[in-house]
Amino acid sequence: MSPPTGKTKSESGLARLIGSGTSGLLELFLFHPVDTVAKRLMTNTNKVFVPGAPLSQAMVNLNQAIFQKKAAASITRKYTSLFPGLGYATAYKVLQRIYKYGGQPYVKDYINTQHRSVFYNTFGEKTGKTMIHATAGSLIGVGEIALLPFDVLKIKRQTAPETLAGRNAFRIFYEEGFGLYRGALWTAARNAPGSFALFGGSAFTKEYIFGLKDYNKATFFQNFCASICGATASITVAQPLDIVKTRIQKRPFDAPESGMRILTDMIKREGPSSFVKGLTPKLIVVGPKLVFSFTVAQQLIPFLDSFFIAKGITSPTPISS
Prior knowledge:
This protein has 321 residues and is mostly helical. The chain has 13 helices and 2 strands, in the order βαααααααααααααβ. It has helices spanning 13-43, 55-67, 75-80, 86-114, 116-123, 125-142, 148-159, 169-176, 184-209, 220-250, 259-270, 279-285, 287-310, and strands spanning 7-10, 317-320. A two-stranded antiparallel sheet has the order 1-2. It starts with 6 loop residues before the first strand and ends with a strand.
């Protein structure tokens, strides 16, 4: 099937920058404690629910896994202990959302301009459109490893703060160098299918469930539903490799461990179920933050674009469609 001709408007770079950055900031301050809980559960190698043990013991194990050294502290101190690495998290999360939510449309525009006929002729118009969004997401996800050092430092502050004791950010970057990119291949392997599912799931929902021709015309409810589908698919397909990546990044700088070694140990010591460890809690506690930020970005970017055009700050940018 030949792709349709005509012109459609692409959002301005300013709208993409501010919209995606705002979604990252809002997500960070609302959901950072939730992210800390999820990371600590994923890196916990001890069984929380032990067969034959009473439920009270499981609650003790869960409390220890989540709050670590603050397990016996007051409720207030427990809660504040869930905000480690906020500085690194701010740098990582805002840059990540700007790069991912603001960058994917540029890759999508390029594919639409240069390779649209390949997708449309292979998959048909509707599925081809969805595949373009998914492929653009996958490609942008792989490039996300450029931000890996900030993610590594955030995770270490959340799960193993003793590895950073007595060193500021500049000293850590100077001393560790490319060691901060440890686990880059595993991160890329996780991000490719995860981002494919996120953007593809969202596009599929808008195309096949809501029948939208212009995704930027989606209502808040439609963006919300599309984000739920995309986020659920993304978290689920990325979970096994996300666990390996997180455990690589948790290791001390002076005692690294390869991804294959971790993979082998997980199968041998914890069994195949270890690859979905924390999936349910992650869908419950991490899913909403991804749904939130993706919905905000999808809603805010077109709104800001229209606002900036109306105020004469930017002008419409046509692209082939």
